[in-house]
Structure formats: structure tokens, C-alpha cells
Amino acid sequence: MAHEGTSEKSSDASATEVGQIIFGAKNLEYQIEEFVSSGGQTVNILLSGKTGVGKSYLTNALIGENVAAEGYDIDPQTDDVTAYEVVKNGVTITVFDTPGLADATGNDEEYLRKIKERVTHFDLFLFCTEMTSKRFRTDDLETIKKLTEALGEKLWEHALVVLTFANEVPLSPTKKTDDVPEATAFNDSVLAFKKAINKHLVAIGVPDITAANVPFTPAGELDDPRLPDREDWLTAFWISAFKRINKNAKAAFLMVTVDRISFSSTLSDGNEEIKVRKDGNVVSLGQFGNLSIEDRNAITELKKKLKESDFDEKLNRCFQKGGTSDEPGQDSKVSGPSIKVNETYSEEIIRDVFGGVSGQLIGELTGAKSGKKYQTFFGWLTKYFKKSYPTSRPT
């Protein structure tokens, strides 16, 4: 009896919590408005890596403008910090390119002093290294150590490691001999870099959880964005950057890129794994992901209640403020290479912006047209966002 009472209480608590997300102070419309108006009008990105690793190319691809002159990376003999700045859609985005450390000039202390002087705040830290190297270089390890000592371990809380020249990574003869699929061999290489850097971060005092959470993303050519393990490295890179950037800069970062977003036609087939629990509750594993049994059942129950409410009308009214349509689209004017967002990426963005449970509810409550529930919602959101973002807000 005690066990049953505890279970019922847990389920009721979950239902109450989920209900508050929809109808309480943190309802969906409120969360949308909060996101649109969050943060300021600036995005600061700190960029680090040796000369010649493709930092300028990466900067231009991320922003969608020729901000940095490619082929003219910082001279290793200079102690300057180069700030590349551009204004797009009312947002000022600045990329601080830093001089290479551990470059045998003996000027590391002067370099670090310049970095701390010029870069007083950053929203995203991109550390670049060549994926074509067979092993992680000693000078990169030393650079990581010196930057962490100078800027603190929090440097890695908004960090993303970018493995450049990933399109030039060859398969080793042993991999070919063993008939290992190219994607598997490629992923093994990415994991080798991740393991080496994570181990080094922990060794220099970065907390285990912080080090483990640092994502790694390979980058190649824009003309052919395919890599052995993905169809479009640029979109995957942008999604990773969006998820890692400071929460207060997410809206501004999206505003910089919103004109480049297009929607992929790769959709879910709608097939889901179904599990029936002994107590009779039906759980769709593909639908609910990692939510607890209590949250899953609470959502199912709440959906029934919402059918009897005016939730759909409230949602439509929210989006009609921006004069949005009901299908994701693409503006005719696009600056820079496209960010091609499919259903999976749409879900990742929505969950990142609105949180796990709220993101799940959005997927469940906004309807699934041919399986495009998150893609449809994100299409609505981008249109509303472009019309409602306060481009004249003071910095």
C-alpha cells in the first residue's frame, strides 16, 4: 500500500508540474516571448588554434559573411588579438582571433595579457585543431593549459572543439584491411581526439563533468559538406554552437543566422517502439525519449485534457502576432551558406531553448503533419522570431 501511495503521489506531482508549464507562469507563450526578448544585441566568440588550421574559413562559414580574410591568419610573430566584427539583422557579432601560444617565440605571457585585455566577455569559445594530425599535438595541449590557467576553468563551460580539415582525413591501412566502414573509422578518429583532450582537461584541473560535456564537431569543405559520418558538417557545427553558446546570447545568435535557415525534407517515418507496462500504461519509447514513466503518463493524461481546452487557439494566437504561416519556409534573400535543419535538428533546438519537458510537450501538442512536428514548430518560431525580435534594443 505504501508503495502504491508513493507512486500515485509521484505521478500526480508530475502531472501538476507539467500542467504548470502549460497553464502557469511559465506557459508556452510566456517562454516564447522570453526567448525572443532574451539577451542583448551582441555575440562575442573567442577563437583559438594554431596558424593555418582554417580559423578564418570556419569563422566565415559560421557567420555567413566574409568577415575574416582567408589565407591571412595571425602571423605567429605578432602579439595582437584580431577582432572581426559584423552587424547582421541588428546584432553585432564579434569574433576574437587569438595569437597562437606555445609557438616557440617565448611571448606567451604577453599574448595572454593581450587576450585578457581585449576579451573581457565571450559567449562561445571555439578551439580549433587539425583532424588530419595522427595524434593530438603537444603545442595544442600546452595552449589549452595556458588558456585555462589565464581565463579559468569556466572557459570550457561554453566551449566547442572543432576538428578542421576533416574532409582530408585518410583511412589508415589497418582500417582498410579490417574492412571497417569508413564512417566507423572516421568516428573512431573523432573519439580519439575527444579522449585525449578530455583527459588533458581533467589533468589540468577542469572538473570531470565540464570536460565530459565539451562537444567535438568535425569541419570540412563548404562546396561538398558531406563527411563520412554526416551529410552536412556545417549544419551540425551550427547546431553544436547554438547549444553551447551562453544562454543570454542564443536569441541574438539565432537572429544572425535566421535568414540562412532552410528545412530539410528528411523526415521521420513515424514508426515508434511501443511498450506496455504491467500496470496497463502504454509508453511510446521513440516518442517520449528519456522522460520518466511518471512524466510520460502525465503528458498522455494532459494531452487528453488539452483536447478539451483552447490550447490550440492560444498557440495559434501567439504565432499570429508575427503574421506567421503554418508551414516552415525559406526566405528568398539568403546571406551565406544554408543551414539545413531537419526534424532531428529542429527537436534539438526546441529542447535546448525551452527545456526537456517543455520541448517534449511542444512536440506532443503542436500536431504532427507527416511527422514534421518539431520542424513545423521551428518554422513557425523562426518566422515569428524575425518579425518580433527587438532589433533596436540597446547593447
UniProtKB/TrEMBL annotation:
Recorded GO cellular component terms are:
membrane
Gene3D superfamilies found in the cross-reference section: P-loop containing nucleotide triphosphate hydrolases (3.40.50.300)
The record's annotation in Pfam families points to:
AIG1
Q: How does it sit in the membrane?
A: Single-pass membrane protein
Q: Where is this region: Disordered?
A: 318-338
Q: Where in the cell is it found?
A: Membrane; Plastid, Chloroplast outer membrane
Q: What is its main location?
A: membrane
Molecular function terms, GO-annotated: GTP binding; hydrolase activity; metal ion binding
GO BP terms: protein transport
AIG1-type G domain residues: 40-262
Origin: domain of life:
Eukaryota
Question: Which cofactors are named for this entry?
Answer: Mg(2+)
What UniProt keywords are attached to this protein's entry?
Answer: Chloroplast, GTP-binding, Hydrolase, Magnesium, Membrane, Metal-binding, Nucleotide-binding, Plastid, Plastid outer membrane, Protein transport, Transmembrane, Transmembrane helix, Transport
Family to which this protein belongs: Belongs to the TRAFAC class TrmE-Era-EngA-EngB-Septin-like GTPase superfamily. AIG1/Toc34/Toc159-like paraseptin GTPase family. IAN subfamily.
Protein name as it appears in the record: AIG1-type G domain-containing protein
